[in-house]
Amino acid sequence: LFALPSLFETFGLVILEAMSFRKPIVATRVGGIPEIIEEGENGILVDPKSAALAAGIEKLLLNPHLKEKLRERSYKTVYRKFSRDNCYAILDFLKLIVKHWKHD
């Protein structure tokens, strides 16, 4: 598993890297992390307190089914939302918007 006990995080690229290696994630609910992690769907979000982080880690360690579910969903999330192809498609879309906006 991968745990990110951050008090402040703008985005959390390290989370995407862990997800690409099929690691189930436990992370604090701060900054941009909730933009990546959906509680119970592709990871576990906890308050930025050591006891909450420990409880999230323990939850994964004691529940192999949840650990496996989050492992696979985190992998799917990173490639569905944050793959290179998806980023290029978003950039192309934004370029199109800017092009039309400049002509108005």
Q: What would you note in describing this structure?
A:
By secondary structure, this protein is mostly helical. Helices cover 61% and strands 10% of the residues. The chain is built from five helices and three strands; from the N terminus they run βαβαβααα. A three-stranded parallel sheet has the order 1-2-3, sandwiched between helices. β1, α1 and β2 form a beta-alpha-beta unit.
Give a quick set of tags describing it.
single chain; 104 residues; mainly alpha; 10% strand; elongated
How would you summarize the topology of this molecule?
Layout: E1 2-4, H1 13-20, E2 25-28, H2 33-36, E3 44-46, H3 50-62, H4 64-81, H5 84-103
Parallel strand pairs: 1-2, 2-3
Please state how the strands of the largest beta sheet are arranged side by side. 1-2-3
Globular, elongated, flat, extended or rod-shaped: what is the shape? elongated
Radius of gyration: 16 Å
Q: Look at the structure and give the mean pLDDT.
A: 91
Low-confidence stretches: none
Quick take:
The protein is mainly α and 104 residues long. 61% of the residues lie in helices and 10% in strands.
